[in-house]
Design goal:
Layout lengths: L2 H8 L2 H12 L7 H6 L9 H17 L4 H13 L9 H26 L5 H13 L4 H18 L8 H18 L3 H15 L1 H35 L5 E6 L2 H10 L11 E7 L2 H14 E3 L5 E3 L10 E3 L2 E3 L9 E8 H4 L9 E3 L1
Parallel strand pairs: 2-7
Antiparallel strand pairs: 1-2, 3-6, 4-5, 7-8
Helix pairs in contact: 2-4, 4-5, 4-8, 5-6, 6-8, 7-9, 8-9, 8-10, 9-10, 10-11, 11-12
Length: 355
Amino acid sequence: MSQEVYAWLSCNPQIRREIDRLVSRESDETGLLRRSLDHLANDEPDSQERWQQLLFTLRYLEELRAEPAVLAAAVLSHEYADAAELPPTLVDEFGDEILGLLQQLRELRRVAAAGGTRTDAVRAEGLRRLLLAVVNDVRVVLIRLCEQLSLLRVLVKNENDESRRSVARETTDVYAPLANRLGAWQLKWEMEDLSFRILEPGRYQQIAQMLDERRDDRDSYVQRFVEELRSKLADAGIDADVAGRSKHIYSIWRKLTSKQLEFQELSDLRAVRVLVEDVATCYGVLGQVHALWLPIRGEFDDYIATPKGNLPFLAHGGDRPGRQDRGDTDPHPRHAQGRGAGRCGPLAVQGRWSA
């Protein structure tokens, strides 16, 4: 990095520690991430916000287990996002792969900017399709999604930024559905919640407050369910990744408004997802779940036999307290899907059950 960058980082130890941590974790001998950081300048008045946005992007990519080339491309994209042309030395320094990622990122931004603000559902869908059509490497889209989410995280704390509402609307209309289409659900959920917090701050805080009152109970319930299901699958010899979560605020708000419910009437505030290797195992998991909990009438859909949306092989359903007397009639989602789908692949089973 330049001397001015080092000097600035010395006055911002938290950011410096995060940069050092990321570089120290780099296993690639070529030092792509470290060398990409050498390109960062520090001539912007809002340096701290720009650094925070970059660090958020790198953290999200790290959580997605992105390889060093992707992290380096994200750093260089951050630095040269507004440049008229990429420096000609980049191809010699980083190679064709990273240069290709950068060029596609620039094209992705150009197309998105040309699309303008899209509030019409048909136009937003057209823009999403166009964004996918202009790239041939899914890693480019994942970088762009992480960048957009990182921008939101910075803007949500800056109430004086006039662009925050347009960015939030663009995220809700274009980028969150794009993340959903690619199976990047964690990115989607956070995008939707942050956008909702900006666009509807009053409603966001109202739901967040109601959720806080029950958070411990909901989280402990999900954990008990996960442990029970994990044990059941292990006893059946099924290799599966089982994880649970409480539903995010935006999805709760959508259900409240679409079904005209009061918060107290909601029963599906929790979800569990099971990742397995193939469709046959998905159905095996489904059998184990139904052995524990009874299906809810009218709440089961098999999207493996009848593909839907971004998950071409998916089953979706619901159970009530089952053959074990659990004394709990609270229906809420359960999901089981193929590991391939969790990595943007085609094989998935998703279910909604109640315990």
